[in-house]
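PROTEIN–LIGAND DATA SHEET

This sheet pairs a single protein chain with one bound small molecule, adenosine-5'-triphosphate, given as SMILES. Inputs appear in the order they were entered. The predicted three-dimensional arrangement of chain and ligand is reported afterwards as a token string under its own label.
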Amino acid sequence: MTTSQTGTEPRYAFETRNVNKVFTGANTVHALTDINLKLPEGSFTCIVGPSGCGKSTLLRILGDLEDATSGEIINNLSAKKVPTAAFVFQEHGVFPWFNVLQNVAFGEHMAGVGKREREERARHWIAEAGLSGFESSYPHQLSGGMRQRIAIARAFATGSPSLLMDEPLGALDAQTRMLMQEQLVKLWELERKTVVLVTHSIEEALLLGDRIVMMSARPGRIKEIIDVPFGRPRSMEVEATPEFARMKQDIWDSLRDEVQASLRLA
Ligand SMILES: Nc1ncnc2c1ncn2[C@@H]1O[C@H](COP(=O)(O)OP(=O)(O)OP(=O)(O)O)[C@@H](O)[C@H]1O
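PREDICTION REPORTED AS:
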């Protein structure tokens, strides 16, 4: 568990205590079991686990898009005036009828921020996301990677203290994905929001995160929490180090059993 430099307990953005989630309907699905997590403010947590283990459900519960069946979710950010969390999903994150500037400013528009202020903030994050010059373009005029950068820039522009991302780079080709990983780290280092990012990629979790929460096959439990030893600011060159290769192998060794178990469940 991460602690502050003084050795005192860090401030937590989110805490979950014995969170369970059961979906009832035609089929009853026990999606999450006894999830206990403490996410320090300003930390970058990646969640990995086999398909169907409840990663998205956990993210949605943290973001208050879904209720837990039992257990407690403590959101220590909720007293702030802005929305607690901004979301980035794999696809469909941008409005096709808005241009880039309007898309990035949308969250602040909804929060009632004045036009001048929200556009100024939007232009700042558009520039940081490498989209300067495209303010008036519409999403259909841009590449998939650029569209996802709009969604990420908007999430940073909202002023929300946390960012919840569900496979935000999952739909991108390998090269664009690598560039976007770099960009995401760079943006986050500018403004250290509390980030929770769901990914299927062990490499991505190691490149981006401070910690990796590894989940077991359904009903999803926390199998292990791994501290990522690579420092900040982080260069993507860590991927070439023996430490990276060793950690990737260890995580895969542990995850492999869960992936096999999830295939038997399917
Ligand atoms: N609204 C829902 N109603 C019923 N069952 C649901 C609902 N949402 C999710 N589930 C079930 O809960 C389980 C966990 O789903 P979830 O989407 O959280 O998994 P995941 O780990 O994000 O999967 P993936 O990696 O494939 O995206 C799955 O078995 C899924 O079918």
